[in-house]
Amino acid sequence: MKLNWKPRSPKAFIFFAVASAVCFELGNTIKNIIVKTPSLLDYSNPVFSITAAKNTGSAFSILQNQAVLLAIFGILAILAAAVYVYKKLGFENKIELLVFTFFTGGVLGNAVERLANGYVFDYIKLNFIEFPVFNAFDVMISASVILYAAFLIFGEKLLRRGRAKKD
Question: Which range of residues forms the domain containing residue 112?
Fold first, then answer.
């Protein structure tokens, strides 16, 4: 059996790769600004505070001190997302492209930090609810999951409504 490695849309895949890299750089830039500006660690308002925390685990601090294992999971997730985008998505799949771009940028950022440092640097603390401290990469991952869930639940209705308006 011969594998077909022809991309669904080379331009969509290139967009995905470049936009994922931009998300990765955005997350790193935010982190670097906070690390290099200690006065930001004093910032607080009723919604959130900027703080500093080293997280050696995953979400909600599960799998503590398993940085390499978590990075491997992250790399596998990135590869799976990249293959899916490469084989299945074109520019007409804007929401899915956005979802996989945010997801890949966020997972890549956390995986690189885990491999480089043995932990991820978390700095956003919500003040209105008891919730673990998190970072920009976590926001990207969470936003991608929420957006994809909404797409799966409401997407076909929205797509049908959009097509009906065009007709």
Answer: 10-162
